[in-house]
Design brief:
Layout (H helix, E strand, L loop, with lengths): L2 E7 L3 H12 L6 E8 L2 E8 L2 H7 L10 E7 L14 E2 L5 E9 L2 H10 L9 H12 L4 H11 L2 E9 L6 E6 L4 E4 L3 E5 L11 E4 L5 E5 L2 E5 L5 E2 L4 E2 L4 H5 L6 H7 L1 H10 L2 E2 L2 E2 L8 H6 L2 E6 L1 H18 L3 E5 H4 L10 E7 L5 H12 L3 E6 L5 H5 L2 E4 L12 H20 L5 H11 L2 H9 L2 H11 L4 E6 L2 H17 L2 E6 L16 E6 L5 H12 L4 E7 L3 H5 L4 E5 L7 H19 L18
Parallel strand pairs: 18-19, 18-20, 20-21, 21-22, 23-24, 23-25, 25-26, 26-27
Antiparallel strand pairs: 1-4, 1-10, 2-3, 2-4, 5-6, 6-7, 7-8, 8-12, 9-10, 9-11, 11-15, 12-13, 13-14, 16-17
The protein binds 2-deoxy-2-amino glucitol-6-phosphate.
């Protein structure tokens, strides 16, 4: 997720673009740039790192004159944060500039075609391929060239395009990524969201998927993908900046919970090509996969909880001994690691000190290291032998949700690919689980549509002083995450237990009205967890059960409340069962009046030991 902005009018564009980028920096902050037209030429200024570097480079825009320009603040997906990879990108002739928010999924194919046509590339990005494709089609009409190019592009995008041949127009195109046009007094704007323009105007129009807008200083025209002119209604915005950044959601955490379908889709489709899982750009080559004798999955907090899911899945589907280890423990336990050990380190931020140190420890012991990371170019991504990026975009809320779900998706991809390489699942099973994996984003939508039920359940239990989570196998791994989410944002004491462990001590804590959340999505162990439910019901606990649709009746018979998730493949239940636990924690914290996005005593990235 990046931020784009554009302006065409009677004022100097650069300061306006920099103001807009400052407002959009929460969308991505690893590099930024602007391109402004002046006296027949496009002038580009780009800087790696926070926006302030670009402000210093351009003396807050004073060094870049001209009244039409585009700007970008980047969240790297393709190519490390660098000046070459930062936007805007220029076409080979330098006459067309582009900024982009989204992912061009078929960029490699287009790139090969353009290379064969003599085009060259300065960056590793998918976006530069798009501007070169526009140049490929350009025959004097910028709108036509842009339209022909986007016709060939697969993926999600919001593009802002300017050209030195057409200094009186700014072209904007949208498909899946948010994009608005805004009407100002001295000129008009495009932007990823309203925050970038609120200082200048509250009159906007929303582009819809497939729309192309030609923005001029005195007016805006909209076209559909057939270049037929269409109308887009104006809207008046009365939000403040903070609201706008949350796109109307009350908290970033809720916004990020609702971004999960898109995030899981993007993360899966980035590693699935032509109906096959493609991890060929990682160390998981068939030859290496056959050498692996042990797997250690390392992380902290929620990242560790994804590791616990990974342990269950990898052992079941690859029969390779796998452990999930807390990074802060791994680094001081003299671990049994050698060059037949694959060490998978998981981290949203890629900067967590304990995980980074554990990575170094593992490397020093000869292990091959694979990182699952969300922040491109982060330390862990750079130091690991290989990295698989989650495409969750910047995660603002301290309590992780969308990055966690993207990490689960990567764990499914690794498990299925490794199991298939080792010949442990049939082609039919492979196709079945892959098809179901691609249905997960839609099923998460279904779960999200039942949020009111969780809001109601939260209103019943938000005053509880302690809440227990129980589950078996994958459901135990999910219970760990559900309990952590609740603890970190609502400050309610909570524990997660393997269902069979209760009677070995903890059940002494169960008293009348204690809430026990029973995660019972694992079909093979359903009866087992229900017998644990009966144990706590016998002590008059309240039980909220999370289960698949097909087990609704059986669960309702013995529990107080049942929340169902759509039926799915046994490998994939964590992705659906996590959602109601995130929402339950969110609404409990909301009812308790907690600072949900910035919980006390916590930091988004723990860079100290
Ligand atoms: C989770 O909601 C917390 N923010 C925390 O437990 C987090 O998962 C942990 O600090 C690891 O962070 P990382 O994924 O950035 O390494």
């Amino acid at each position: 997720m990046c931020g784009i902005v554009g302006y065409i009018g009677r004022e100097e564009a650069a300061p306006i673009l920099l103001y807009g980028l400052e407002r959009l920096e929460y969308r991505g902050y690893d590099s930024a740039g602007i391109a402004v037209y002046d006296k027949g030429k496009l002038n580009v200024a780009k800087a790696v790192g926070k926006l302030k570097n670009l402000c210093e480079l351009t003396d807050n825009g004073a060094k870049v004159s001209g009244c039409i320009g585009i700007g970008h603040t980047r969240w790297a997906t393709h190519g490390q944060p660098s000046t070459d990879n930062s936007h805007p990108h220029l076409s080979g002739s330098g006459k067309i500039a582009i900024v982009h928010n989204g992912i061009v999924e078929n960029y490699m194919k287009i790139r090969e075609m353009l290379l064969s046509e003599g085009f060259t590339f300065k960056s590793e990005t998918d976006t530069e391929v798009a501007v070169q494709l526009i140049e490929y089609y350009y025959k004097g009409n910028l709108l036509e060239a842009v339209s022909k190019a986007v016709d060939k592009i697969e993926g999600s995008y919001a593009f802002g395009v300017i050209s030195s041949d057409h200094p009186d127009e700014l072209i904007a195109v949208r498909k899946e990524s948010p994009l608005i046009v805004a009407y100002g007094e001295t000129g008009n704007f495009i932007a990823s969201d309203i925050t970038a323009v609120l200082k200048y105007t509250r009159n906007v129009a929303y582009l819809e998927d497939g729309d192309i807008a030609v923005v001029k200083k005195d007016g805006v025209k909209f076209y559909n993908s057939y270049l037929k002119e269409i109308q887009r209604e104006k809207a008046y915005i009365d939000w403040d900046v903070e609201d706008a950044q949350r796109e109307g959601y009350q908290h970033f955490m809720l916004k990020e919970i609702y971004e999960q379908p898109k995030v899981v889709k993007n993360t899966l489709s980035a590693h699935i090509k032509d109906g096959r899982i493609d991890l060929s750009d990682t160390l998981l080559t068939p030859e290496y996969c056959r050498e692996i004798k042990r797997i250690s999955i390392i992380g902290c907090g929620s990242a560790y909880h994804v590791g616990v899911v990974g342990k269950y899945l990898l052992e079941k589907y690859t029969r390779i001994p796998t452990e999930a280890v807390l990074a802060s423990e791994f680094r001081y336990t003299d671990p049994i690691i050698d060059n037949h050990t694959l060490v998978i380190v998981i981290s949203q931020s890629g900067e967590t000190a304990d995980t980074r140190a554990a990575l170094r420890e593992a490397k020093s012991l000869g292990a091959r290291t694979l990182a699952i990371v969300n922040v491109v170019g982060s330390s862990i991504a750079k130091e690991a032998d290989s990295v698989i990026y989650t495409l969750a975009g910047p995660e603002i809320a301290v309590a992780t949700t969308k990055a966690y779900s993207a990490q689960l998706a990567v764990m499914y991809l690794i498990t299925t690919a490794l199991s298939s390489t080792l010949g442990l699942i049939s082609a039919a099973e492979y196709d079945e689980v892959l098809a179901e994996m691609l249905r997960i984003p839609g099923k998460i939508e279904t779960v999200l549509s039942d949020r009111e039920q969780l809001q109601h359940l939260a209103s019943m239990y938000f005053n509880n002083s302690s809440i227990f989570f129980i589950g078996r196998n994958l459901d135990y791994a999910i219970s760990l995450e559900g309990s952590l989410k609740l603890k970190e944002i609502s400050y309610i004491h909570s524990e997660a237990y393997a269902g069979g462990e209760l009677k070995h001590g903890t059940i002494s804590l169960i008293e009348p009205e204690t809430l026990v959340v029973a995660v019972a999505t694992c079909e093979k162990l359903f009866d087992k967890i229900i017998s644990n439910v009966k144990e706590v019901k016998a002590r008059e606990a309240n039980v909220l059960c999370i289960t698949q649709n097909k087990s609704f009746n059986a669960a309702s018979a013995v529990t107080d409340n049942v929340f169902t998730i759509p039926n799915t493949h046994e490998m994939l239940t964590p992705s659906l069962a996590a959602i109601p636990l995130q929402l339950f924690a969110y609404y409990v914290a909301l009812d308790r009046g907690c600072d949900i996005d910035k919980p006390r005593n916590l930091a988004k990235s723990v860079t100290v030991e």
